[in-house]
Amino acid sequence: MTLRKEEKDCWNNFEKYLGEELGLNPTNWREGEDPPDCYFTIDSQDYAVEITTIMVEINLDSRKLPEKGFRSSVDEFAKEIEDEAVKKGLLDGAYVISFFGPFSKFRKKKKKIKNASLKYMKESQAQERGSWKVIYKEGSRNCAIYKAGTGKKWVSLGIGSPDFYVRWTELAPKEACYLLHRRACRWS
Fold it and tell me: What one-character DSSP code corresponds to residue 53?
């Protein structure tokens, strides 16, 4: 049996979570027969793991879009903005772009959002850190950008709200593992 990329990513994040957050050192990771997807060993005890994908649907006007599809398209778009900023010499730090709700006819709005992002980057070049700026709004949905610092030079997709705090995309799987662990402990 061969794991899909998403399953392998879940496996890797779960392994990290067990070690870094819980201090457990799983060994002998191996693929299962489906089910389960894999096994690991802790203190001579084998554990079976079934990796399940949680699908979230996003309502987009008259149709529904899998959250994974929305996420993938905005991830690609953040990379597109980064490439354009590099080409124009505007990328002088780390920027976080957050989308708060999907936009209808997103492809038609991408140019406005990209131009507003590049304008913000140009305006914030002299700053070490910027403040949140809503660069596109459609009803209650919006897109905001934030200059996070000058160390690294990239554009990342953020998860969160300018009114609260943003989690870097890379931290989302870790937080999901933590929330699942807390819930599992309540059930046991």
Answer: P
